[in-house]
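User: Hi! I have a protein structure encoded as tokens and I'd like to know what sequence might fold into it. I'm fairly new to this, so please keep things simple.
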């Protein structure tokens, strides 16, 4: 049998150490994710880590360090596709980015284990766990800080609903007021609504604004004849 000719006890134990290392460290990362009830939990992170370790270890035994480097490159791109499946977009919100990043890091832990870099694999596991746990209070503290429109960059849009017959007049007034306030318009959209109404949406060039300036412009628009609604909104840049 070919197996009896190629089997080397030392190489076998070396592979076991790599896989066991990937399994243990993948379990630590996955357990934290499972506790947080994330979509990619314990089993997913373990399988990603062990799978990456197996591929790298296999390449290392077949063709040495050069083969391992090539396989690692494919592991990185392959995990990218797996992580993309964990990312979901719901309206303006994007979910799953942290889950995808954790899967990517689990693959890196497994790749280190497969390359017989056990200490580096352990260190990376510590950093991944720290990123998902120790940084959580800091993230919550930053999220609780009130948003200052004057110091933040986001996408701002002024929206006006008016009668179709006065659309041109309202659009010109909106453009003049924004230019006077030094807020350049990136694009303007006109959407026709039922009951002979028109919605005019002016998107501003991405920059920091003063909320009081936009409030004043909106108040002025609301006073125009034929205008039924005027407001402005802000959304984060992607």
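Assistant: Happy to help. Inverse folding works backwards from shape to sequence: for each of the 238 positions I chose a residue that suits the local structure. Here it is:
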């Amino acid at each position: 049998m070919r197996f009896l000719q190629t089997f080397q006890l030392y190489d076998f134990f070396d592979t076991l150490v790599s896989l066991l290392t990937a399994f243990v460290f993948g379990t630590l990362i996955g357990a934290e994710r499972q506790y947080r009830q994330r979509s990619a939990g314990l089993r997913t992170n373990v399988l990603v880590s062990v799978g990456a370790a197996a591929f790298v270890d296999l390449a290392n035994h077949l063709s040495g360090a050069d083969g391992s480097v090539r396989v690692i490159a494919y592991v990185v791109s392959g995990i990218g596709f797996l992580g993309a499946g964990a990312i979901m977009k719901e309206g303006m919100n994007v979910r799953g980015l942290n889950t995808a990043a954790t899967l990517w890091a689990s693959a890196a832990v497994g790749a280190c284990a497969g390359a017989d870099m056990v200490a580096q694999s352990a260190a990376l596991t510590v950093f991944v766990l720290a990123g998902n746990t120790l940084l959580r209070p800091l993230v919550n503290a930053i999220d609780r800080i009130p948003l200052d429109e004057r110091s933040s960059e986001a996408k701002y849009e002024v929206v006006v609903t008016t009668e179709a017959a006065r659309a041109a007049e309202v659009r010109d007034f909106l453009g003049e007021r924004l230019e006077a306030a030094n807020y350049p318009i990136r694009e303007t959209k006109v959407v026709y609504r039922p009951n002979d109404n028109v919605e005019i949406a002016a998107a501003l060039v991405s920059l920091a604004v003063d909320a009081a300036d936009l409030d004043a412009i909106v108040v002025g628009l609301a006073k125009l004849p034929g205008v039924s609604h005027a407001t402005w909104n802000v959304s984060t840049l992607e």
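A useful reference point when you look it over: The first strand starts at residue 88 and ends at 90. Feel free to ask if any position seems puzzling.
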